[in-house]
Amino acid sequence: MPVKQLEYESMIITAAAFEVARSGRFVVSLTIARTSEQGVANRKLFDPPLPEVDGNRVAEALESTIDFGRAIVDGDVAGCTVKDL
């Protein structure tokens, strides 16, 4: 399972790709978690911009998903917030 993770503005943004039944197609997920001195406090699942990709585009999809996560944390995505974390 390919994963890319980044700490950004006291949040951990995680993009992961899961292969669907050895098909060469991957479903991409995005979670954002608030960090604290005790570790991860809360996390939330978001719909990524490229929810499904073929195997040749996984790295690109993970990078795009991380960028989307940063935009959510920055408050630049309508309807998506991390204020409740």
Fold and architecture overview:
With 85 residues, the protein is α+β, with helices and mostly antiparallel strands. It has one domain (3-73): Nuclear Transport Factor 2, Chain: A, CATH 3.10.450. The protein is 19% helix and 45% strand. The protein has 1 helix and 5 strands. It has one helix spanning 58-73, and strands at residues 3-8, 11-19, 25-36, 39-46, 52-54. Strands 1, 2, 3, 4 and 5 form a 5-stranded antiparallel sheet that branches. The radius of gyration is 13 Å and the shape is globular. The mean pLDDT is 91.
In short:
With 85 residues, this protein is of the alpha+beta class. It has a single domain (3-73), classed as Nuclear Transport Factor 2, Chain: A, CATH 3.10.450.
Secondary structure layout plus pairing:
Blueprint: E1 3-8, E2 11-19, E3 25-36, E4 39-46, E5 52-54, H1 58-73
Antiparallel strand pairs: 1-2, 2-3, 3-4, 3-5
Radius of gyration: 13 Å
Number of domains: 1
Helix content: 10-25%
The overall pLDDT average reads: 91
Q: Which descriptors would you attach to this protein?
A:
Nuclear Transport Factor 2, Chain: A; 85 residues; alpha+beta
